[in-house]
Amino acid sequence: MCAIVGVFGNSEASRVAYYALFAMQHRGQEATGISSSDGVKITTVKKRGLVTDVFDEPTLSKLIGDMAIGHNRYSTAGSESILDAQPVFAAYQLGEISIAHNGNLVNKNEVRSRLIEEGAIFQSSMDTENIIHLIARSQKERLQDRIIEALEVIKGAYCLCIQSRTKMFAIRDKYGVRPFSLGRLKDGGYIVSSETCAFDLVGAEFVRDIKPGEMIIFEKDSNEYKSIQLFEPDPHICAFEYIYFARPDSDIEGKNVYATRKEMGKALAREHKVDADLVIPVPDSGVSAALGYAQESGIPFEMGIVRNHYVGRTFIEPTQKRRDMKVKLKLSPIGSLLKGKRIVVIDDSIVRGTTAKRIIRILKEAGVSEVHMRIASPTIEHPCKYGIDTPSYKELISANYSISEVEDYIEADSLDFLSVDALKESLGNDTNYSLVSFDGNYFIK
Ligand code: AMP
């Protein structure tokens, strides 16, 4: 997951990057960082914690220059150490370089072993460091060619922002797994960012999505950017970005995330009808789909569960015990609204089954007469290797149990999931999507 941002040609570059990272805090809360360049040197600040905890006025004042790249980290590869925070900075033969990466490289272990055999020393467990080493060891004269050489070695899902002292490169893998968009800043320069929700906050106008397989180059003293199509596009846009991960106000590949989630909810109502008194969402992840379900089914929508916003996302916590506790701290039912009612509860997905089980328990404790759980995505039967943090087969409940077994486990009166075909239809069926979590088609070989 993670979020990346790059800002070029703006006198407030590090501040723009800061606001963009703030808008994309949902993509990673473990660590954050910004590297800026004034054309002479690169300065980096990165730390564990939220964007607003790590950066303050004095810190941002140190990040001088009219270009900056930034990163929010959600650990999918690598450990939780501070050494794994990004951007990753290095001094090498051509000067200084800093990289921010979103995605997951599938051949990282092979590449790393080979580099170690050849004498490379690694500081972190991140796959991003492979890219730095490949660039540093390349014999090519220009940074651009060194990057291209490195990209020919790495395989996987990646969006990259690479900054030298005078240039910035924005690159999206040929599958376009993770989102990456280009915007023009109203007060000068450009921004590239994982999600378009960052654009509104910083006063940027959407230009276009970066194409799968494309490299965009920004150079000092040039107002225009260059584009090189490095690899033939083979689109596999991550469906999970639409289902859960991206913010509802973001547009990915021209499609608004909120609108697609509502479509999924409508499709779910058509596929899995139920007689009930109320539709309620699991807040916040099920809200858009529940609205769609209610509109399509004609069953009234109510916010029957209240969320305490001072608790972070439950999934973020590393141990099962803490996760269970956090669901309880986070969500509580409105008893007077729900008592004696037949309820359809909508969530976007079931991963381990923890949230669904807990929610059904609190609804039953609140006195509902029936709970029908409807999930606005298909059963997750395979771990994602391309940057979404879904756990191993062992922990994925739908990889191990049938729908009726999961229904028993979560103690629902009924349980149903959106079909893969209905998901594709809700997304518009106009491009190819990465559906690995659902169909196990690991397309990056
Ligand atoms: P679980 O409780 O393990 O079944 O996880 C399902 C809940 O976590 C749902 O409410 C989802 O909105 C949320 N969720 C699904 N996928 C992810 C993810 N990759 N990271 C964080 N949260 C997730």
Structure explained in plain terms:
With 445 residues, this protein is an alpha+beta fold. The chain folds into two domains: 3-235, 4-Layer Sandwich (Glutamine Phosphoribosylpyrophosphate, subunit 1, domain 1), CATH 3.60.20.10; 254-439, Rossmann fold (3-Layer(aba) Sandwich). The chain is built from 17 helices and 23 strands. The chain has helices at residues 13-23, 51-54, 57-62, 108-117, 128-137, 143-153, 197-202, 239-245, 257-271, 287-297, 320-330, 335-338, 354-365, 397-400, 403-410, 420-427, 436-439; strands spanning 3-8, 31-37, 42-48, 67-73, 88-92, 95-105, 156-163, 167-172, 181-185, 190-193, 204-209, 214-219, 226-229, 237-238, 251-252, 255-256, 278-281, 305-307, 331-333, 342-347, 370-375, 414-417, 433-434. A seven-stranded antiparallel beta sheet has the order 3-2-4-1-10-9-11. A hairpin with a 6-residue loop joins strand 12 and strand 13. Helix 5 (128-137) crosses helix 6 (143-153). The protein is elongated. The model has no long low-confidence stretch (mean pLDDT 93). Bound molecules: adenosine monophosphate. The site of adenosine monophosphate has 18 residues, from helix 13.
Could you outline the blueprint of secondary structure elements for this entry?
Layout: E1 3-8, H1 13-23, E2 31-37, E3 42-48, H2 51-54, H3 57-62, E4 67-73, E5 88-92, E6 95-105, H4 108-117, H5 128-137, H6 143-153, E7 156-163, E8 167-172, E9 181-185, E10 190-193, H7 197-202, E11 204-209, E12 214-219, E13 226-229, E14 237-238, H8 239-245, E15 251-252, E16 255-256, H9 257-271, E17 278-281, H10 287-297, E18 305-307, H11 320-330, E19 331-333, H12 335-338, E20 342-347, H13 354-365, E21 370-375, H14 397-400, H15 403-410, E22 414-417, H16 420-427, E23 433-434, H17 436-439
Parallel strand pairs: 14-23, 17-20, 20-21, 21-22
Antiparallel strand pairs: 1-4, 1-10, 2-3, 2-4, 5-6, 6-7, 7-8, 8-12, 9-10, 9-11, 12-13, 15-16, 18-19
